[in-house]
Amino acid sequence: MSNVRLSKAICAAVAEVLTGSHATLDARFVAAGAPGPPPDLPQHSKWKKWLFDAGNDPNVDSLALVGNLIEEFMDLPPLPTNNTIADLIGINHDPLAEYKQRRDRLNGVLEEHGFRYFRGGRVLPNGEMPLSPSPSNQSSASTVEPRQPSTIEELLQTLVCGLPRAMHPLVHRRQGAQSLTFESEWDIQDLLHSQLRSWVADIRPEEFTPSYAGSSTRMDFLLRAHRLVLETKRVRDKAHAANVGNELIIDIEHYRRHPDCDRLWCVVYDPLQLITNPSGIADLEGPRSTPEGSLHVRVFVVGG
Question: Distance (Å, rounded) from C-alpha 265 to C-alpha 201?
């Protein structure tokens, strides 16, 4: 057990690179090994406090926790932005250059405090080198099989939070194979649909919702046996990022009237991290009830 106290600077630097709603990051922290329950604090300070408390818990492998939390950020840089598209949608910065700046800052803070990050989610004291996994070392964390989801909620949370990883081998394919792109909501829906089909027998895409304000809409997926709807959004540009919350509010009103929907999971894929306040969208989470129907909403903002 690497019971190493985490400095406040390390906790702050790690928190800076974490993106997503409260529900998304709560799940990531628990999966990474953080002790619960999460602190009841605003988004900007919650993750720092949770990390700092974990670093003072003798039962927590604090370096493994940090490595698990930052692995995806450190090992999976964003795709380069097409300059022509960037000009059209009004992006005046290079996401890849911004990513490298944030990664260098995190690396610098770790090294200033005597640690170094190694690919694969391993954070070690300076001077130590990671051991190569061997077939005989079955107790190694790198060889432990992930636990099979026991509920539909665990399954969906795993698939939703793992979207960027699932996309990576499809975007970066072997030489000669056509790469796939995920430039529209339909692309995200197809990926989720393909992953769900092995687990859920009855998936009903594109079923109409009851009318709200004189209009109806097509839902992405209805898991009728679980009375649950999955709704996906892909943030297209800055203007859309500012309006996603309003779109979700309208969707909630539609789905609240559907006789087979008790739960709505909203998945917002934001590859360029254009949503400036993910916690504002996360405020839509929770029960929504009126005389016309009730619904429990969860919101996941997933970065690229």
Answer: 18
User: Residue 207, SS3?
Assistant: coil
How many whole angstroms separate alpha carbon 280 and alpha carbon 284? 8
Annotate 180-218 with DSSP letters as a single string: P---SHHHHHHHHHHHHTTT-S--EESPBPPPBTTB--B
Paired tokens of 7: 């400095």
Q: With pLDDT > 70 as the criterion, what percentage of the chain qualifies?
A: 81
Distance, in Å, from the CA atom of 121 to the CA atom of 124, rounded to the nearest integer, reads 10
CB 261 within 8 A of CB 294: no
Give 128-158 pLDDT, tens digit per residue: 766 544 444 444 444 444 556 678 888 888 8
Contacts of 282 (CB under 8 A, 6+ apart): 21, 22, 23, 43, 299, 301
Q: Which amino acid is at 52?
A: F
Q: What is the pTM of this model?
A: 0.55
| CA 269/CA 135 separation, integer angstroms | 37
Q: What DSSP designation does 276 have?
A: S
Residue 141 CB: number of other CB atoms within 10 A? 13
pLDDT, tens digit (0-9, with 9 covering 90-100), for 208-258: 555 444 444 566 788 888 989 898 999 999 999 999 999 898 888 878 877
